[in-house]
Design a protein that fits this description.
About 20% of the residues are buried. This protein folds into two domains: about 110 residues, Potassium Channel Kv1.1, Chain A; about 60 residues, Serine Threonine Protein Phosphatase 5, Tetratricopeptide repeat, CATH 1.25.40.420. Helix 3 crosses helix 4 and helix 6 crosses helix 7. The longest helix has 26 residues. About 55% of the residues lie in helices and about 5% in strands. The protein has a three-stranded mixed beta sheet. It is built from 13 helices and three strands. This is TD and POZ domain-containing protein 3. It comes from Araneus ventricosus. It holds the Pfam family BTB.
Length: about 240
């Protein structure tokens, strides 16, 4: 080895190092970037604009997949038992959509222990429609009686968006023949918006409705409600 005496005096290798210690964070500018991938600037793609188009598609896919979960009954851990049929469901989804179910499954209630909820006051079709809305946020075509049953179910389980949908159906399909029934329903379920809407309708058609058999039946069932509605006609 050349210059051995210079680099290895007495066969000893000596290394000298210079160490730098920082008392803070050292920041340096990046001198350059090299990449095989395309780089987009703010003008080349508008994520906000795309979001408006993409989200509804994702929502539709998600709703469809959740609906399949209901129909297939995969990994179900609870049953909703109506008058003659039982429907498998999932506690986590029911809890997320209804505060009543959430409270039921968060405590040592009999439904949580037995993994079965008895709903004998609702018919099979109403329970199934209720589950369809819980899983997919969709409501199939309604008739007046269907909407009434579903409205009562939505109120019972405090699914307010579904209750509003049914309430909107009543307002759209309100007529002289069903106004009294709608008024009784709204009053029973403490729906002040629907109640006020129906009362206004009755007062606009007071001559026909207050001389009808439906109004006479209303006075037999709830005289106070009938008097309250008539009073509005003379209230300033």
């Amino acid at each position: 080895m050349e210059n051995e005496s210079e680099y290895l005096p007495n066969d000893i290798l000596t290394l000298q190092c210079i160490c730098c210690f920082s008392s803070g964070i050292i920041r340096r500018a990046i001198e350059g970037v090299s990449s095989d991938y395309a780089i987009f600037d703010n003008n080349s793609i508008n994520l906000c604009a795309d979001k408006a188009d993409i989200l509804p598609k994702f929502q539709k896919v998600l709703n469809g997949e959740l609906k399949s979960l209901l129909m297939d009954g995969i990994h179900s851990d609870i049953k909703l038992r109506a008058r003659s049929k039982s429907y498998p469901a999932h506690k986590c989804i029911l809890s997320a959509r209804s505060p009543v179910f959430k409270a039921m499954f968060s405590n040592e209630m009999i439904e949580n222990i037995k993994d079965c909820v008895d709903i004998e006051d609702l018919n099979d079709d109403t329970v199934f429609r209720l589950l369809q809305y819980i899983y997919s946020a969709e409501v199939e075509e309604l008739e007046w009686d269907d909407a009434t049953d579903l409205y009562e179910a939505a109120d019972k389980y405090q699914i307010l968006t579904l209750k509003d949908i049914c309430s909107s159906y009543f307002k759209i399909h309100l007529c002289r023949n069903n106004a009294c029934a709608a008024l009784l329903l709204a009053d029973l379920h403490h729906d002040e918006h629907l109640k006020s809407f129906v009362q206004d309708f009755i007062l606009r058609h007071a001559k026909d409705i207050m001389n009808s058999e439906e109004w006479k039946e209303l006075m037999k069932i709830n005289l106070k409600l009938a008097a309250e509605t008539m009073y509005l006609q003379y209230k300033e």
